[in-house]
Amino acid sequence: MLKFDICIIGAGPSGIAAAMRGWDLGKNVCLIEKGPIGGAGLHNGALSSKTLWELSKDYLHAGRQDRGYIAENIEIDFTRVAHCVDQAISEKMSQLTRQLDELSTAREEGNNPHGCITSLHGAAHFVDSKTVQVTSEQIMQRTTVTADYFVIATGSRPKIIDTIDIDGHFIMTSDHLMQLKRFPRSLVILGAGIVGCEFATIFANFGQTKVYLIDRADRILPFEDEDISRICSVNLEQKGVTIHHKARLLDMRVVDGEVEYTIQHDTGGRESIRVDHALISIGRRPSLDELSLDKTGIGLDERGCVVETSTQTIAPHIYAVGDVTAYTGLVNVGEISGRYAVEQMYGLVSKPLIFDNISTIMFLDPEVAAVGLNEQTAQAQRIPYRVSVYGYALVNRAVAMRATNGFVKLLVSDDEEMHVLGMRVLGVHASTTIEAISLMMYKACSVRDLVELLHPHPAVTEGVQECARMLLGTSIYKPQVFQSDLRLSRVTYDD
Questions:
Q1: Cα–chain-centroid distance for residue 154?
Q2: How far apart are the C-alpha atoms of 360 and 368, rounded to whole Å?
Q3: Nearest Cα to 154, choosing from 20, 2, 34, 314?
Q4: Side-chain half-sphere of 152: how many Cα atoms within 13 Å?
Q5: What's the CATH architecture for 171-282?
Q6: 359-491 sits in which CATH class?
Q7: How far apart are CA 338 and CA 432, in angstroms?
Q8: CB burial class (10 A; 0-12, 13-18, 19+) of residue 55?
Q9: Quick one: which of 468, 389, 380 has its CA closest to 427?
Q10: CB atoms near residue 366 (< 10 Å)
């Protein structure tokens, strides 16, 4: 039996972040993982898909003919593309493995003692609330582990539909995509959320695949404002993507070496289409089945997520972080929660864990960055607000890049302080604009503070500054003149 200060089950972004924070505090940490180090965020999620997106964007730009040059006879091979993705994953795997190896021995540096991280490969399950058993099929060995504290960080896996036979070849989830040997001639994607739209963008960018997107709502990305949803939808359709809006999937099966799917439109009509492959992208669910949580007394909510408060479960020595909780399934959220859990164990936190200012990126074409409230959420919560929208057509850097399809949208409170409530940016370099706003929200800053920031020129972030200036009536370009590119409005409620 092995005894540790902290036992972490799962070595994805959340688990690794927790392990490193434990090492910082001089703790003896056990890190258990049954799969490859890095979890889905590295292998079948953020890094792999975003590498694929970057490659698709490069290919798309290489073929543009509106920049004074023409690239002809560009060859593309999925095997080589997949190799580039594998290289990116291997680089990060090497970094993580190197660090875990280096930190596997306790040492003292000056007056700052550091702990030790012991990595165990195998599947873990609870024997009781203070003991787990790790089974390694590779070496046919079982190891019993006890600890003062436990962290559940087992991540998530794609949701499936019981009536659809996912074989990993014809009908796939995101876990299977990189097993393709060639670009499909045709692909249907079930689910028009972030992941579904990102993969639709990727395959459309490469231009080798006819893409169909099944959207049960009346518009894609229904959680975002209509202006963002509309532009993203139009851009996909201009790339040749067929979007089945308000469509319900009736059947999907493999017929004669092809995937045949049948949908019912909101008008009542039915349509059957055959494609090479199908991608099921309807969300993810926590990976908890093998843990024997019934031995711990920990409860699950109706979605199958671990019930916790600021990472701490009903068993005070057991914490849950990352995708197994009800928080947004993002790498940055997982990392923060992993660090927070360890700090909470040892009394180093003074306030609850909140994500009101969490920033996200949607890897579409163009990309979308988001933080805080959007208009439809503010309206649903009846929060009075003021909003300014600044079109990319007036942003010098976007003009220089010949990429003026986009805008910056800034929401502030409808009061004298005009606190920043949220921002959305759709367009090139959108991801570079968002972090300052996230910090300002965390610090409860006013739009007046935002105006004082000095941005480099030319940069897309100047559009953020001009949004702030519009709200104060001091913008360089005036909404009265550029009515199609600028918008300034106010939403209030009588009660």
A1: 17
A2: 8
A3: 34
A4: 35
A5: 3-Layer(bba) Sandwich (3.50)
A6: alpha beta
A7: 25
A8: buried
A9: 389
A10: 22
Q: Whole-model pTM above 0.90?
A: yes
Q: Point out which residues pair with 118 in neighbouring strands.
A: 30
Q: What are phi and psi of 231, to 5 degrees?
A: -65, -45
Nearest C-alpha neighbor of 264 from the set 216, 218, 219: 216
Integer Cα distance of 30 and 104 in angstroms: 10
Give backbone dihedrals phi and psi of 340, rounded to 5 degrees, phi first. -60, -40
| 338-389 pLDDT tens trace | 999 999 999 999 888 888 888 999 999 999 999 999 999 999 999 999 999 9
Q: Delimit the CATH 3.50.50.60 region(s) of the chain.
A: 2-47+82-157+285-345, 171-282
246 dihedral zone (left: phi>0; alpha: psi -120 to 50; beta)? left
Tell me if the bond preceding 458 is cis, omega within 30° of 0: yes
Q: Compute the distance between CA of residue 90 and CA of residue 345 in angstroms, rounded to an integer.
A: 33
Rounded to an integer, what is the distance from CA 88 to the centroid of its chain?
Answer: 18
- Contact indicator for 35, 56 with CB cutoff of 8 Å: no
Q: Are 311 and 344 in contact (CB under 8 A)?
A: yes
Where in the chain is CATH 3.30.390.30? 359-491
Q: pLDDT band for position 469 (50/70/90)?
A: very high
pLDDT at 354: 83
In this structure, whether the domain defined by 2-47+82-157+285-345 belongs to CATH 3.50.50.60 is answered with yes
